[in-house]
Design a protein that fits this description.
Blueprint (H helix, E strand, L loop, with lengths): L8 H15 L7 H9 L3 H28 L2 H21 L3 H15 L3 H11 L5 H26 L4 H22 L27 H30 L7 H14 L7 H4 L3 H21 L3 H29 L5 H49 L1 H13 L10
Protein name: MFS transporter
Pfam family, one: MFS_1
Keywords: Cell membrane, Membrane, Transmembrane, Transmembrane helix, Transport
Length: 405
């Protein structure tokens, strides 16, 4: 099993298109600032608007999964990105608070439509043995593009915050156009009826699949931990006497680690890791890095801890999506990926509230100690659904991944 084979053109184009989109995906970080500065609302109102956006992303992702399986991957991606562009342009042009709130909720309702079909399209185009690699490359491309997004935001933010939403809308439209013109057209694949001659068929409904629900539970815990880093790290650094803006340096170090580590996933020690062992190793590294945040208070030590947890992240993200795809029945990949993806919507609501409370009552040491302990718990729990996936393959209930042209 050599990792030197080139990924299909469909996957490479999709990864590039999503990276272009990620270059503009910085505007939502400034939604609360726009609400307070341009419309004179208080912090509580701005937080409520942000929470309403986060809540709206949950049905958005579920709809994306269902549409991906019903009308096709490409159509759903294009529709979702076009809807994002319309909502962001509406936010940029809003002249009143009610208008801005309406467009923010609309943005939430279309914001995640393109995620499940993007992930399902990758799964359709590559062999199961290449799923981890393909999802890892997508994660690395998005992380790398995120570094450029910060630079773009810093430049445009000096003019007017509304230009951030305009730029984000333009990258959405550019990504939608690339997907529409360059990726294969959708073709309807009939979903087989559950009439397998051996054993019981794999459940067609994601919410009845115990293995997927286990993945959803552990995935939600992981998402809460991950979003703690993304949303509360600057605040925690400020409490430690460090400059909160240095969090950008740590995020850059993480993106570089994830990007540089991609070739390692194709080399023998890591390529040969079975999912349970990979999950355990990844969460232990994540716990070690977060414990480093709890125990050290200098910028160099934070950089070293960031590299450690980023190597853990490298092992985790692509592998989790590969397990979810393997659990899905024929024709149900979009719905399964969407159900699993709701973990991020739930975490998006929970993580900021939990993180700020932990910092207020226990300080940064309590915050990072709690997240490190959560990762140790995940190291023990996560292998279970991965083992169930292996058992399904062994029983012959899994079918070969379909290929696309």
């Amino acid at each position: 099993m050599r990792g030197s084979t080139r990924l299909p053109r469909t996957v490479r184009l999709l990864i590039v298109a999503r990276a272009v989109n990620r270059l503009g995906a910085f505007s939502m970080s400034f939604l609360t600032v726009l609400i307070t500065t341009d419309f004179g609302a208080g912090a509580a109102v701005a937080g409520g608007v942000s929470a309403a956006f986060g809540l709206a992303t949950i049905p958005s992702r579920l709809a994306g999964g269902r549409l991906a399986d019903r009308i096709g991957r490409r159509r759903t991606i294009v529709a979702g990105l076009t809807g994002c562009a319309v909502a962001q342009l509406g936010l940029a042009a809003s002249g009143s608070l009610p208008s801005a709130v309406g467009f923010a909720v609309l943005l939430g309702l279309v914001f995640e439509l393109y995620e499940p079909p993007s992930q399902a399209m990758i799964a359709d185009a590559v062999a199961p043995s290449e799923h981890v690699r393909a999802y890892g490359l997508l994660n690395a491309a998005l992380a790398t593009a995120g570094m450029g997004a910060g630079l773009v935001a810093a430049g445009l933010g000096h003019w007017d915050l509304r230009w951030l939403f305009v730029a984000d809308a333009l990258t959405c439209l550019l990504c939608a156009l690339t997907v529409h013109l360059a990726l294969p057209a959708d073709h309807r694949t009939p979903v087989p009826t559950p009439a397998a001659p051996d054993h019981t068929p794999a459940p067609a409904a994601p919410w009845r699949d115990r293995a997927l629900l286990l993945m959803l539970a552990t995935g939600t815990l992981f998402a809460v931990v991950y979003l703690q880093i993304m949303t509360t790290l600057p605040l925690a650094m400020e409490h430690e006497g460090l400059r909160p803006t240095d969090a950008g340096l740590l995020f850059t170090a993480s993106a570089l680690t994830i990007s540089a580590g991609q070739p390692l996933l194709r080399r023998s020690p890591l390529a040969a890791l079975q999912p349970p062992a990979a999950f355990t190793t990844g969460y232990l590294l994540l716990a070690l890095g977060l414990a480093g945040y709890a125990l050290t208070h200098s910028l160099p030590a934070h950089l070293a801890a960031t590299v450690v947890w980023s190597v853990g992240d490298l092992l985790l993200v692509g592998r989790a999506y590969a397990v979810v795809v393997a659990l899905a029945p024929p024709g149900g990949r979009g719905r399964y990926l969407a159900a699993y993806g709701t973990s991020w919507g739930i975490a998006g609501i929970v993580a900021p509230l939990l993180g700020t409370q932990l910092i207020e009552h226990t300080g940064p040491t309590g915050l990072w100690s709690t997240t490190a302990l959560t990762c140790l718990l995940l190291a023990a729990l996560q292998p279970a659904p991965a083992q169930r996936t292996t058992a399904r393959h062994t029983d012959g209930n899994r079918q070969p991944a379909p290929t696309t042209g």
